[in-house]
Automatic annotation (TrEMBL):
<keyword id="KW-0967">Endosome</keyword>
<dbReference type="GO" id="GO:0046856">
    <property type="term" value="P:phosphatidylinositol dephosphorylation"/>
</dbReference>
<dbReference type="GO" id="GO:0004439">
    <property type="term" value="F:phosphatidylinositol-4,5-bisphosphate 5-phosphatase activity"/>
</dbReference>
<dbReference type="GO" id="GO:0043005">
    <property type="term" value="C:neuron projection"/>
</dbReference>
<dbReference type="Pfam" id="PF00620">
    <property type="entry name" value="RhoGAP"/>
</dbReference>
<keyword id="KW-0968">Cytoplasmic vesicle</keyword>
<feature type="transmembrane region" description="Helical">
    <location>
        <begin position="664"/>
        <end position="688"/>
    </location>
</feature>
<feature type="domain" description="Rho-GAP">
    <location>
        <begin position="503"/>
        <end position="679"/>
    </location>
</feature>
<dbReference type="GO" id="GO:0052745">
    <property type="term" value="F:inositol phosphate phosphatase activity"/>
</dbReference>
<dbReference type="GO" id="GO:0016020">
    <property type="term" value="C:membrane"/>
</dbReference>
<dbReference type="InterPro" id="IPR037793">
    <property type="entry name" value="OCRL1/INPP5B_INPP5c"/>
</dbReference>
<keyword id="KW-1133">Transmembrane helix</keyword>
<keyword id="KW-0443">Lipid metabolism</keyword>
<dbReference type="InterPro" id="IPR048869">
    <property type="entry name" value="OCRL-1_2_ASH"/>
</dbReference>
<dbReference type="GO" id="GO:0005737">
    <property type="term" value="C:cytoplasm"/>
</dbReference>
<feature type="transmembrane region" description="Helical">
    <location>
        <begin position="640"/>
        <end position="658"/>
    </location>
</feature>
<protein>
    <recommendedName>
        <fullName>phosphoinositide 5-phosphatase</fullName>
        <ecNumber>3.1.3.36</ecNumber>
    </recommendedName>
</protein>
Amino acid sequence: SSSASITDPPIFHTKHRPGSREAIAQLLMKEREAEYTRLHNYRLIFCGTWNVNGQPVAADLNEWLSPQKDDDPPDVYVLGLQEMDLSKNVYIFTESAKEDEWLFKFQSALHKKAHYKLVRCVRLVAIMLVVYVRDSVERHLRDICFESVGTGFFGTMGNKGGVAVRFKLRETSVCFINSHLAAHTEECERRNQDFRDINTRLFFRLKNQFISISEHDIVFWIGDLNYRISDIDTEDVKRMCSSGAYEDLLNFDQLSREMILKKVFFDFKEGAITFPPTFKYDPGTDEWDSSEKARTPAWCDRILWRGDNVRQICYRSHMQLKLSDHKPVSSVFIIGTKEFKREMEKQVRESVIKLLDQEENEFLPQVSLNMTDVYFKNLKYLDSQQQSLTIENIGQVPVKFKFINKPSDAYFCKPWLQVQPSEGFIHIGEKFIIQLEVQINSKSVPDWSSDKIEDILVLHLEGGKDFFITVSGSCLPSFFGLPLTKLVHMLKPVGLNKSRSEEPITKETDKSLGVPKELWFLVDYLYQRGMDQENLFQMLGLESEIKVIRDVLDETITGLSASTFHIHSVAETLLIFLDSLPTPVIPNNFYQECLNATSVQSCLRVSEATLPVAHKNVFRYVCAFLREYLSHSDKNKSDVRILGLFICTFCLCIRWFVYLHIYISFFIFILVYQLVSLFVCSYVCFLLKLYI
């Protein structure tokens, strides 16, 4: 690293750049907002969350949504469901009959002393968020948007993730998020990553601008966050619950720990928990899980918030509702919303402009950086690393900074790099810390064939010069991300080669394997130990195990037979491998052939004639394994449509479609993707049924 100071005169003075001058004026206006703002209290904001475990809509929801002790009707209802529909069809079709059933049930259980209108209902597979407002409040709403982000299985299936609705209530921007994060006690870090993914990937599009979660005045985050109670015996947990020692028990709560360490939900708050853990119960009872797994009770279902002028009235669970293995949770808030006094706003603005006129004639922005070369060492596929960049204002005026695009780029940094925050405002003498995080996966690095990564960030000071920061890293070899045509010629593990970019690696031997040995090891493990496993390829594995599997396949010749892994971890590793291929199993030029085909049989003939040998072998090999898995359907409850959908999803080039839909209509993107998926999925199902 190195130290640098930006003290040279700017290329263009601030007064010649009205855009930058206006940006600083807006920031100064924001700081003096209290001088021209009047607060309006909205008496009650009701937030509720419930993981309903796919159960039919049979419960009376009045005890949850309008209990008798709540005499005052809420102004806003925000209701989140997880596992709303666990049927297999929910992965295939966009419609769900249960959605309409829940909406009807919600509407009938809202507070009877007010009339409500549905603002928005947004659903991602089985995660649903519904927002209602009172008739008298609706006229104060504007800029309503909704969005969703999937985090389960690379964000393609949406079995985990988040859905969100935002709007402006008078002059206050409010965002509501309902999320379902990764399960399992040992997957705390994966839950943290799910939070980071939702927090950084979810953007609302409004009038050709993108609005992030962090840009809202008030944020409510609800859902089955799935953080567990750990490092304590299950029977001790139950005894503490029986005695009501919740405060002591929270010392073992993963979310509380992670928030104290500032790993997740930075700046969020949570009310005091005075109710029993909401998971896991025997459905229909108040008894803890009596199944063979006997899961430890936990506060999986939570409601958090961030922002000023928010006061929590209550935070509670509803034990009377016994429909699911979770108990519903609700919280009621009073929030203050802003209304601008226009005459005072005008006077403050005139004062700010006068101050800017004085300062920009006397001073120029000056900052120092703790380093201008950021280096990440020994990066590996699926890994992430973080470093901090510190900017200090050493000048005599406040500084507005922003990372800006390079002339030929659509975004200011490459996909493998995350910069948070990407812009900010630094007062005189203060420091600003920026987190730089490198994440290596198929979405961030589609071509994993180089030994290094590199990017240059352009840090722009409003009214000052640009500053260049080099971000680079060294990469360790992995079978993830290598093309099939290269892998089938590699007899040694990838990690035993000095470099992935060396030419000899492609000419290691004149012989070639029918399929990559890594694929064989994965499929063989599943064949030997997973034929009777339900929900194969539909449940997340353990992130820590997946990385161990990666290292074993990269660095040893023995494969997985000598180790014991969770079967879902191996299954997910197989999907990650298929997703990581630079050229998918079904290459891009096959898409048009699929669309031109008039039947599944003609699609089959096209594939036999056009697919490269390595790709054809892999496709047949995976289908052969799935045929065998389906032959055990009496035990594993497998469904040919679900398996066909999952495999064709990872055999198609998802990344190509993701990039495409950025530039064309979303509806055209959906149509094209569904057409191609229909042909390839039908083709997969056709092949599988031939042998059943």
